[in-house]
UniProtKB/TrEMBL annotation:
Keyword annotations from UniProtKB, A to Z: Glycosidase, Hydrolase
Keyword Hydrolase appears in the UniProt entry: yes
Record-given protein name: Glycosidase
GO molecular function, a single term: hydrolase activity, acting on glycosyl bonds
Amino acid sequence: MQYAAADWKPQFTAERRVLNVGDTKVLKWGGYGKDTKSTIEVAGKYVWSVKFDEKANPIAVSLNQCQ
């Protein structure tokens, strides 16, 4: 997966392009073929969160299982 503006420019991917459940990773510039990979091994509900700075730039992403 990638995180992007409505017109797909810019695109962002998680640092090292892997996001495990419970992780928070810095977002880096992405692009075609630079997707973030996540494996969800336990059935359930999950939430992806994107953190933005004060200028609305995306800076981090996290993946967590809902309680």
